[in-house]
Amino acid sequence: MREIPLFEHACLKPLLVEDAVEMFTAIDSNRIHLREWLPWVDDTKVVEDTVEFITLTLEQKARNQGIHFGIWYKGRLAGTLGVHRIDWHNGKTTMGYWLTESFQGKGLMTSAVIAYMREYIFGVWQLNKLEIHAATQNSRSRAIPERLGFHQDGVLRQNEYLNGRYVDHVVYSLVAEEWQRNYTKNLD
Predict the structure, then answer these.
(1) 23-69, pLDDT tens digit by residue?
(2) Smallest Cα–Cα separation from 96: which of 66, 51, 52, 58?
(3) Which class for 46: exposed (0-12), middle (13-18), buried (19 or more C-beta within 10 A)?
(4) Looking at residue 178, what is its pLDDT?
(5) Strand 68-73 to strand 76-87: parallel, antiparallel, or no bridges (unpaired)?
(6) Which tens digits make up the pLDDT trace of 69-104?
(7) Which residues lie below 8 Å from residue 22, measured CB to CB, with a gap of 6+?
(8) What strand order describes the sheet that includes 151-162?
(9) pTM (2 decimals)?
(10) Which residue, among 161, 159, 184, 181, has the nearest Cα to 169 in the 3D structure?
(11) How far apart are CA 90 and CA 49, in angstroms?
(12) From residue 148, how far is each of 113, 143, 181 by CA, in Å?
């Protein structure tokens, strides 16, 4: 599978087991930053945990259930994004993502989400709907779908147990008709 360029010095590359050390290092050096909103950070204790995650994503791809990408900037792994699973019958999926603290504010995640939608969600896969869920207090994560004009569908109350508390999630969606009407002419 090919690399997807984002902008100068930035690209998406499918996650491979060979990326495990770099990915673990990115997670390990950003634990405080990532832990605030990601429940899996505390369970990622050694490189082998990251190998296991990447292996699961490769199995997911083999089952035609989505692809996870590393977001690379100037030769370093800045974060990842991928879909949780694809509901082929209903033509929809949910996307998740994270970015290390030092790579925020460069347009990486916005560009990565656009590229993923263009290449896979509404491209190769021809899905009808993409959802993004984010904790109501996670303003950086919420900024991505808001910036891209996703519809705010509602709030799922106490949707996730995170660091000893339940957090609400805002659900955003973009459907294929909106992508075609509003984004393909502006993003290509």
Answers:
(1) 999 999 999 999 999 999 999 999 999 999 999 999 999 999 999 99
(2) 66
(3) exposed
(4) 95
(5) antiparallel
(6) 999 999 999 999 999 999 999 999 999 999 999 999
(7) 76, 77
(8) 4-7, 10-14, 68-73, 76-87, 92-99, 129-135, 165-175, 151-162
(9) 0.93
(10) 159
(11) 32
(12) 9, 8, 13
Token look-up 């207090």 returns 137
Tokens 């030092």, located at residue: 102
Cα-only R_g, the chain? 16
